[in-house]
Amino acid sequence: MLSPELSKTQPGTSLGAVLVVEDEAIIRETIALALKDEGYEVLIAEDGYSALGMTQRNEHIDLIVLDVMLPYVSGLDLCRIIRKDGSNLPVLMVSAKGTEGDRIVGLEVGADDYLSKPFGIRELVARCNALMRRRRLNYQAQEPSVLRVGDITMYPQECRVMVRGGEVNLSPKEFRILELFMSHPRRVWSREQLLEKVWGADFVGDSKTVDVHIRWLREKLEAEPSEPKYLVTVRGFGYRLG
Predict the structure, then answer these.
(1) Residue 20 needs a FRET pair 20 to 30 A away by CA distance; which of 7, 138, 162, 169 works?
(2) Is it true that 4-142 and 147-241 share their CATH fold?
């Protein structure tokens, strides 16, 4: 869940979204407030089971600050599951267990960094910043010049889309929607998220405009628009690609 008092970062200013998984309330809120002050959007989870649900629901998360000793699902097990699912989200593991062996185990299960308790909050924020810088650099280095999903090929720099070997004409909004979907395969996008990403945070109007543009895209992309293969409705949540 998103803690109401931690969601005050203005649109467009966030450095990214950090999930803080910590069962001790004082430590959890201290970390969360420090990260919010740094400019991050902060989500919190009090146990490993809740955190696992948040990661599997495709919530937008850029970094995880993960305690090792958690109720229900331990931090080590949670990290193993996240990596097994193929996620490359940066994980900063924190723990009262600070021996060399403990740090090695944490890194071996998939953590990107390990910080022993007690720690200075400024050091934790600095490590988060470093992991986020690395993530941005890796993303920029790996950003493809061509996007392909099934029969759809997109050339973002040329603003061209090919479907089953033929070029299709998309409006700027349609192109941006499709680019979001193809850049994040299988991620679920709500109407509100699509409006913010494509139309902008200042958009004033009916969210149903998203449904209209999705219908137009289906008519141009799908072999059977009434039975979509690519732009799939996820009832109660939004849309995803494939």
Answers:
(1) 138
(2) no
CA–CA separation, 11 and 2 (whole Å): 15
**Cα–Cα dist 213/103, whole Å:** 49
DSSP conformation class of 195: I
CATH architecture designation of domain 147-241: Orthogonal Bundle (1.10)
Q: What is the pLDDT of residues 15-74, one digit of tens each?
A: 889 999 999 999 999 999 999 999 999 999 999 999 998 888 756 889 999 999 999 999
Tokens of 57: 């629901």
**Measured distance CA(97)–CA(78) in Å, rounded:** 17
Per-residue pLDDT tens over the stretch 112-169: 999 999 999 999 999 999 999 988 877 665 555 788 898 999 988 888 999 998 999 9
Q: Classify domain 4-142 at the CATH class level.
A: alpha beta
Q: Where are the domains of the chain?
A: 4-142, 147-241
Distance between first and last Cα of the chain: 27
Return d(Cα 48, Cα 79) in angstroms, integer. 10
